[in-house]
Structure formats: C-alpha cells, structure tokens
C-alpha cells in the first residue's frame, strides 16, 4: 500500500510536470530530468524497505545471527547496512547523469545543472506521502511506549509492536529520500558556490588598481587584449581552469580528505553525545529509584519532567561543538586552501556523508526490526537468548538511525550553505593567507 501511494503521487506529479513544461515551453528535457528524480526516489524507497523490513531476508538474517550472540548480531547488521548503500548510490549516479543529459548538460553545463536541480524537485515532489509515512514511525513508537507505561494488555502491545515495526521501515524510507535529495542538489549547490565566486571576483576586479583579480577583469578592453577573462561573461569552466579545479591539484585533494573526515568526526561526536546524555539519564533514574519509594511496585510516581529536562538540555548542549565545527571547517579550509580546497571539502563531505548516512540509517532500522521479528514469537520470542542479543543490536542501532545518520543530511547542506555565505571572505583573503604560507606565488 505504501508503494501504491508513492506511485500514485508520482503519476500525478508527472502529469503536472508535463503540463507545466508544455505551458511554459521548458522543453521535454526538463521533464525528463523530473522523471529521473522521481524514479530515483521510488528506487531508493524500495531498496530501503527491502533492507529494513522484517519481511525480507536481510533483517531476518540479522535475527538468525542473534542465536549466536550479540557480536554476530552487530557484525551482520553492519554488513547489511554497508550492502544497503549500494543501490542508493548507483541510483543517484544514474539520476545525476540522466537528469544532466536530458537537460542538455553535455552541450551546455548551465542547463545540465538546471536539470539536476529539477531532478531533486522531482524526488521531493512526493514529499506529502513521504513525510506522512516518515512521521508515522515516531507516532507508532510513542504509542507503544504509552501502552507499556500504562500497563495495558499483551494484545495491545503486540499491535503497537506491529505498527512500530512498520514505522521503522517508513522512517528509514523517509531518511533515504532526505539524504538522496541532498546528494542530488549537492552538484547544484557546488555550482552555486562557483557562481558566487564569479560575482565576487568581478566585484574585486572592479576595485583593484589594474582591474584584474585572479585572472579575471571587469574591463572588456583588457579581456579583448587577452590579458584576462571578462568576469561577467566567464563560465563555470573558466573558473575551473583558472582555479585549477582538478584532482591533480593538491589543494583540492586535501579538501576532499578533510570533507570525508568531517562526516566521520561529526558522526563520532553525535554518537558520543548520545552516550553522555544516556549516562546522565541512567544516573537520574537510579537516583529516583533510591529516593522515591514505590516506583517499582507502581505505588509511587516517578519525576518524568526531570528526565525530559535532562534529555532536552543534553541534546542542546552536546550539539554546540558539532554545529560550530560544521560552520568553522569550511571557512578555515577556504582561507588556507582557497577555492579549490572548499570545492574538495564539499565533494568529500558529500560522497562520504551520503554513503555513511545510508549505511547508518538502514543498519539501525534493520537491527530494530530484527528485534521486533523475534518479539513476534520467532527464534524463541521475548526473554530468549536471541532476544537479549537483538536488544543489544537495537540499542546500538538507535543512535545510528535516529541521530548520526539523519544529522549527516544537515551536515552536507550546512557546509554548502556556509561556503556560499563566506565566499566573498574566501575570495578576498585566501590569496593573502596562501601567500604568507607559500602555497601560491
């Protein structure tokens, strides 16, 4: 039924896109780009469901591994998560190539980037049903928690567990759409960064004494003399050549390494933040058990508000350093490594972040649903050794699918936007700093 809903909304979007392209004279190439994004979104959604639902072999395979202990459960879950990144990555690759080609990008790069942007629009056009199914997951999870705390019957808990199991899959699907759209738009955001560089190079060339800045000029006469390129007429490839934006440039390669590192460091910081917040919560629960009589037998009332306060304050405090890191690294990298370093940073962050996010999201969902599969009565059911191992896997998977995985989507977009905002600072001051460091002549 979820697939039917997604396909139904996709058909409506296709009809609307065809009508708009026809009325506005955008051409069928743009329509092809929209179709590329829609198809990519459907494929990513179905791949996510396959790897996270307990109806299919990957999650059931994790459940089988629980019979041998917690270690094999975690190992198999990691393997499933790594495998699950394959289909989304290949799908995004084909989506970018097809949307770029349909829009005429191999003859006009600007139109190709425009087409990639429309592919992202096509993928997110089904946002209504995708967002609804994504929101369904935490609603079902909280319903199960309420049933547990209220002491409702086993039948109620079985029903909420079934809903929660489906919710884990729908939540993973929603996260797949989110990170997929971020990957599709990343190429357009990098192009937007180059366009911002173009604007500020033109402005700085106007204020320089000889009207030339970084090989570009604001004076048409100088451009005709062959001394520089007219900034207002420069294309993306002119900046690619002038700034040496190729893999043999060590500044760009260093930026790629820094961007790839950022994804892992950011994930590590968010995971450790979850551990510290959980430790504070455990200490509070132990304190309440000691100081508030009757909690265990139900005659006393725990201080729920204090637990909520700890988790909320912990979440806000622990995200200060990761957020500042995501803002500072593009600026510092740009000032030291220049425009090539920033481009490399964005490319490295995108590639590593996208693959890592797919792995973490799907591994976490698969671990959770493997536990739910056992709780349905398979492999000994609740209380068995297999269930205990599955609980460990679920505990490991929660920060993966609920914290680190989704946060990478934000990291990719935030670094791109910070780079665009600070482009004038980098264009103006990076040549000076690089001159001090001896990186440029």
Would you write up a description of this structure?
The protein folds into three domains: 1-52 and 85-199; 208-240, no CATH class; 243-441, no CATH class. The protein contains 15 helices and three strands. The radius of gyration is 26 Å and the shape is globular. The protein has helices at residues 2-24, 28-52, 57-65, 70-84, 86-102, 109-124, 127-149, 154-207, 220-224, 236-242, 250-291, 304-318, 320-375, 385-421, 423-437, and strands at residues 212-213, 216-217, 229-230. Strand 2, helix 9 (220-224) and strand 3 (229-230) form a beta-alpha-beta unit. A three-stranded mixed β-sheet has the order 1-2-3. Residues 218-226 have low confidence and may be disordered. With 441 residues, the chain is mainly α.
- First-last Cα distance: 63 Å
The helix/strand order is: HHHHHHHHEEHEHHHHHH
Please count the beta strands (DSSP E, at least 2 residues each).
Answer: 3
Q: Mean pLDDT, nearest integer?
A: 85
Strand percentage: under 5%
* Number of structural domains: 3
Q: Output the structural class.
A: mainly alpha
Overall form: globular
Query: Sheet bearing the most strands, described?
Result: 3 strands, mixed
Strands, helices and their partners?
Elements: H1 2-24, H2 28-52, H3 57-65, H4 70-84, H5 86-102, H6 109-124, H7 127-149, H8 154-207, E1 212-213, E2 216-217, H9 220-224, E3 229-230, H10 236-242, H11 250-291, H12 304-318, H13 320-375, H14 385-421, H15 423-437
Parallel strand pairs: 2-3
Antiparallel strand pairs: 1-2
Helix pairs in contact: 1-2, 2-5, 2-6, 2-8, 3-4, 3-13, 4-13, 4-14, 5-6, 5-8, 6-8, 7-8, 8-13, 8-14, 8-15, 11-12, 11-13, 11-14, 13-14, 13-15
């Amino acid at each position: 039924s979820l697939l039917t809903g997604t396909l139904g909304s996709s058909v409506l979007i296709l009809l609307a896109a065809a009508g708009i392209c026809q009325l506005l004279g955008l051409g069928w190439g743009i329509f092809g780009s929209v179709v590329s994004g829609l198809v990519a979104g459907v494929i990513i959604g179905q791949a996510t469901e396959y790897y996270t639902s307990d109806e299919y072999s990957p999650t059931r395979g994790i459940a089988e591994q629980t019979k041998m202990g917690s270690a094999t459960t975690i190992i198999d879950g990691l393997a499933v998560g790594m495998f699950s990144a394959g289909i989304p990555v290949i799908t995004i690759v084909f989506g970018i190539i097809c949307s770029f080609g349909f829009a005429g990008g191999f003859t006009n790069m600007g139109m190709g980037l425009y087409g990639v942007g429309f592919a992202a629009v096509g993928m997110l056009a089904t946002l209504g049903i995708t967002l609804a199914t994504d929101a369904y997951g935490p609603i079902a999870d909280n319903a199960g928690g309420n049933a547990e705390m209220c002491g409702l019957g086993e039948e109620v808990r079985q029903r909420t567990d079934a809903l929660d199991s489906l919710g884990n899959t729908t939540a993973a699907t929603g996260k797949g759409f989110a990170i997929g759209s971020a990957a599709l738009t990343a190429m357009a955001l990098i192009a937007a960064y180059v366009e911002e560089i173009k604007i500020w190079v033109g402005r700085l060339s106007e204020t320089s004494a000889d009207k030339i800045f970084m090989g570009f000029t604001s004076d048409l006469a100088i451009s005709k003399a062959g001394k520089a390129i007219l900034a207002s007429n420069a294309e993306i490839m002119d900046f690619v050549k002038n700034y040496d934006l190729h893999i043999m440039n060590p500044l760009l390669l260093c930026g790629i390494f820094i961007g790839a590192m950022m994804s892992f460091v950011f994930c590590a910081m968010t995971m450790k933040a979850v551990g510290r917040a959980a430790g504070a919560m455990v200490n509070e629960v132990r304190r309440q058990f000691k100081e508030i009589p009757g909690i265990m037998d139900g005659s006393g009332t725990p201080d729920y508000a204090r637990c909520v306060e700890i988790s909320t304050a912990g979440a806000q405090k622990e995200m200060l350093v990761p957020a500042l890191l995501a803002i500072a690294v593009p600026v510092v990298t740009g000032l030291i490594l220049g425009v090539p370093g920033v481009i490399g940073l964005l490319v490295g962050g995108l590639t590593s972040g996208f693959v890592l996010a797919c792995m973490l999201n799907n591994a976490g969902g698969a671990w959770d649903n493997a536990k739910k599969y056992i709780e349905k009565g398979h492999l000994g059911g609740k209380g068995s050794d297999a269930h205990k191992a599955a609980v460990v896997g679920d505990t490991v998977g929660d920060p993966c699918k609920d914290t680190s995985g989704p946060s990478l989507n934000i990291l990719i977009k935030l670094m791109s936007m910070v780079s665009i905002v600070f482009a004038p600072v980098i264009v103006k001051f990076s040549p000076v700093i690089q001159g001090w460091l001896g990186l440029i002549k």
